[in-house]
User: What shape does this take?
Amino acid sequence: MARQRKPADAVQFTYESAERIANVVRAAETTPPSASPLTFDKRFADRMPKQVRVATFSGAWPIDSSKTVTLKYAPTATVSAVNLSWPITLPGYTAETCIVGREGTNWWLVVPKLEARTAVFVTQTQQRTYCSQTASQDVVTSVATTKATITCLSDVSVTASLNTADCTISVGVTKSTSSTDVVGSVSVSTANIKVVSATATAIFIQSHFTSQFLRIRVP
Assistant: This one.
């Protein structure tokens, strides 16, 4: 009765068997690993791919509107993106650079091209009334007069006496005069001046400071 072979017993191969095994091992070692098999797992919203790309657009792009943009570095690829927050209303933009992002299947405008500008910011104002309209008016600037003296009769006394010898009456008249100074001539000088005919109220800058701010690049 033949002895039963145990796992620890040595294995013997013929020369042909060893060559065949060696060929299989060499072929397995030189063959590239096969690709992973395709899977069709369920995709959840929080696992959808997110992507940020550089793109260009032309024309106005108001808020809450969509626009077809061209992905930069891939001129033949275009996507439709929605602008949620940037007031791009001027129509003069041509091949303007912007950043768009994708979440799931939707594309959004992330940020357009910005530029820095220096501006004066008002920190305090004051209300003042100013002249809003004027009118021409002639006014007297000087008055010159000359004096004249006139003499007038101020009192008359009449006396009468009877001559009984020859029956004649003698009448006597006494006149009293007085002098008075009066204006002989008047010379008036005038000038034409501007006077306020209407006023208005305005707000004037009382305090300010200079700083920089970012804005959308104006085409």
